[in-house]
Amino acid sequence: MATDEEKISRLYQQSKNAAPPTQLDSDILKAAHQAVDKPSSVKSPFSGGWPAATSIAAVLIITVILVPLIRHEATTPETKRTAETKLETLNEQDALERSNAEDLNIEASIEATKKAIIQKNVSADIRAKKQSLAKEKTRRLTQTPPAREQSSGVTQDQAFAAEEAMVPMTMETLC
User: How far is CA 165 from CA 93, 133, 148, in A?
Assistant: First the structure.
């Protein structure tokens, strides 16, 4: 039996003289020449011709005509008036908000002032009452007149004691 190497060597020897048929060879060469000689059917859109020139001209004309129109339209007096109106509206809203805030501050200040005045008046009234009571006491201590009854049957000393008892009550109720 022959080894694998001998088989391979024999097959190689047989194929050494083998060539493709001449007709097949000539058909392949002919197709290759036609493929190389044929112009390419794929073209770029800007490779020439009237469509490319027309599209470029159209873009230039539109640019030259429309850009100045758009610029002019953007600065028309109506547009300016609209922008000014919007700005005025915003300014008015801002002023109104500031005015509302000031009103709130003023109202709070008025309330605080009212409270302070009420406390001051109550304190002044109490002080005046205490001073008058103190003067009355000193007058009584320095002069001891006989106790007189008033028309209601209450002596002046009793009325004075009742007034002194009422002063702390009024202080508690006012505060």
Answer: 58, 12, 21
